[in-house]
Amino acid sequence: MKSELDALMQAKNLDAFVVFGHAENNPPMTYLTGGGHVTHATIIKKRGEEPIYFFGDMERDEAAKSGLKLIPYSKYDAAELWKKSNHDGALAAALRLESMFRDAGVTTGRVGVYGFYDLSAIFGMLSHVQTLIPEIEFVGEAREDSIFMHAMETKDESEANRIRKMGRITTEVVDKVKDFLTACDVREDEVLLKEDGTPLTVGDVHSKIRLWVAERGAELPSGFIFAIGRDAGVPHSSGNPTDLMRLGQTIVFDIYPAEAGGGYYYDFTRTWSLGYATPEAQELFDQVKEIYDQLNSNFDLNAPFRNYQQMTCEYFEARGHQTLLHTKAPVEGYVHSLGHGVGLNIHERPFSNLMNGDDHRLAPGVVVTSEPGLYYPEKGMGFRIEDTYWVRPDGKMEILADYPYDFVLPMKKWKK
Amino acid sequence: MKSELDALMQAKNLDAFVVFGHAENNPPMTYLTGGGHVTHATIIKKRGEEPIYFFGDMERDEAAKSGLKLIPYSKYDAAELWKKSNHDGALAAALRLESMFRDAGVTTGRVGVYGFYDLSAIFGMLSHVQTLIPEIEFVGEAREDSIFMHAMETKDESEANRIRKMGRITTEVVDKVKDFLTACDVREDEVLLKEDGTPLTVGDVHSKIRLWVAERGAELPSGFIFAIGRDAGVPHSSGNPTDLMRLGQTIVFDIYPAEAGGGYYYDFTRTWSLGYATPEAQELFDQVKEIYDQLNSNFDLNAPFRNYQQMTCEYFEARGHQTLLHTKAPVEGYVHSLGHGVGLNIHERPFSNLMNGDDHRLAPGVVVTSEPGLYYPEKGMGFRIEDTYWVRPDGKMEILADYPYDFVLPMKKWKK
User: ipTM of the predicted structure?
Assistant: First the structure.
């Protein structure tokens, strides 16, 4: 929770932090400001004090929405800084940042550096600031262990509600895709047809998905997955736009829409086979569904997340599949880990990797995915089932959006 | 151009560079790889050698599309690194990066750091690498002066074509918005109505814009602007979603769609007044249009971009408006600079600020906006006209998408 930030700073021995970048698509900044169209903002927070939000004057209305203490960049005379820096952009930026630190009362100690932004510009600027205020030590943190990742790890009711709303939008879109696909005409060679009689491609379906998400006011990162056949067997292949949609092939459909402007995500996957499934595909799907259900009835409050990755690997290895438990970087079998936290980052704490510590737990407030899968690109098939869960304050695991798990989707105008 | 990178590295005395982050929405990475769904990639390039693309195994198909020399992260044993680092994530990442640098033959010299990514994680990791390979010096650059900003500054025909295509999509969407607005019914108090008879809001129009951009397969950053009245007078206000659409008020409509996945942008603004305009608004609009046209007929090949900012400020000051020429951070009048380069970054070189050097020029190959405007939030009005131009290899300035400049849009079902 955001209220933990001061305690987390103390635990990490940070006297202050600075966050750079846009207010959108920049989780630490969005977390502190609530978002808004602020394109080059800076936040400086001294431990135990309120954050100060520095912003460009043209964006004053957007910045004001944050409710934070505000200082416009115009307070610092750009022409004078430019002159003083001898027309060195990195130094001019550093001189301004020096004044901002002094205005925030930060002149000594360990200062954490955060934000998603231009590494080169910030690296260059901070090298200069280091010389201008030598008593400050700038500090980075391992991504998975930063104060923001820790604060963001547990969600309150209002955050869970925002994720739940994205879940509703997600399942609405998934259902529209299902209705659209199953209503298609089918050619003799089992290729699906569009209304104009030409073959339906994966790219056509991608367009529909983008459109239906946009209609609902959400954003869809372009790496979402709707892949068929071999591409479904490569976990992060987005799907080849020119592939034709066919009956009896596995489709992996993994989407993770977010609130517009880089807000909270939802993460969701279903695997389908249109019209019918091959016996081999049905068997593999049934295994994925079986372990998915077993996990679901075994999730325990406060248990280490990696325990469920262990359980999943053992289940799959017992059935002859490679997993990360005994194979390094497998390319077939169960090739990834079970899940991850979801929030303002699509991947955040807790993580389920086998080597993670006990601090990655199913603690009250975490929002996590459970997503076992099997991948056989050479056989032209892949499978994954994924839902997003909230561990409620009362310790119950709640799926944030319900949706059926059917593998074979009957076609409305086609029978075997 | 990309082919200039080695020469730019030499000029900046860089022996190598490293780029971190996703392949999407990360201009230096997109520039080198062509994009694709690669979520945590690294590129290392030694001067004079081909770049090496390090990627996660699950994303091998996407990485392969780049045509670059590939090394999967799985080459570096994660479990061993984790053990060796004593379970310190930043150190484990640094140990891997150390091996990657050694594999790329980079063990000494000045190494530029680039990419849009998690500042904290990279800062933490590089501090460790600095200790592991002390002969390397990591270097940042001022954003506007980096080797990537310089290389990207000039576009070839194929890049111009991609921007032109986004321009076509942009003007199609703008035209749909125009048709939609002018077809609305109008209430007695001059409020526009939706088909269901309720008032049309700015938020409704935002939704339409998002939808129509998505339908065309492009992405629209959520900070796009469609604002009316007072909000039109604040240059970067996105527009208040609950504002009602009314006749006779100025509307600033500024959109900058990009190719899906964070590709090339187009940047465009028109100002409208529905049904009629007040005489004061008409006069201010006419001034903006007049200087817009004057600029257009004065653009000279290779002239410093700031000359046109100077010309615009002088034009507006002669008519009694505040500008950056003699006012620091004006909040009304002409409050911004004339334009900026457009490419994989919505704002890139060349820039038109008065204090910029002669190196920000209208050189062959640059793509720039021209966007004079006037802003009077207290009067409830704002104005801006913006098009995106390519300076062709033959030195001609070409508007990449034509669209009419009409200020007053007649309503189809309403007359004064």
Answer: 0.86
